[in-house]
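INFO  loader      accepted 1 record
INFO  loader      residues=225
INFO  predictor   begin
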Amino acid sequence: MPAPLHYRLKLRLLSPLIPLLLLREKNKRGGDLRFLRQRLGLGFTARSDRPVWLHAASVGELNTALPLLQRLHDAYPGAMFAVTTNTPTAAALFEKQKLARCVHCYLPIDLPECLRGFLRAINPRLGLILETELWPNLYSACARLEIPLLLLNARLSKKSSDAPGWVRDGQRYSVAQLDHILARSDADREQFLALDAAPERLQTVDNLKYAVPVNFTAVAPQAVM
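INFO  predictor   done
INFO  writer      dumping tokens
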């Protein structure tokens, strides 16, 4: 089932502005040509090792995710990892970690033609998404490819709950595609319930470090590492 029609139409109407916005972001944050290309869905290297994919949009989310990434890296010595970010500053922070078996890419914008090349090239076995990243077209593509998705340290801001109807519909659709949601507080859990999250796929975890013992085989049995 594709993302809601009005979300897709709104995004398509805004799409002519996207290259300009990305160019401004590149210049503001010191990005390079790879940033522009990959955010537009180009320049990904095909791989066959089915990595575990972790997405942390910016520096704050990546700082939260790094302890989890390190523990997963240690716990699954045979697994490969792909980390995506939205910003060059987060990419620079990742590169400083120098983790073996772990590569960085930029996540493309939420347009189907941009996402297609990314998902075909990376071909992840499992997606671990940090905090507030609810992207309907991305989640729709992952559902079609049977890539399990877990939302970690999940939260929704007051701004999100007050968003226009077409944005809320996109959020509701995205939540329905998730295999499991680990909310960071009971208040956040209630926000996801308001978006019709299935209670059996939703639990509160006070701190991201407690997400590590989650049995990924039980939560997403098709993603055994």
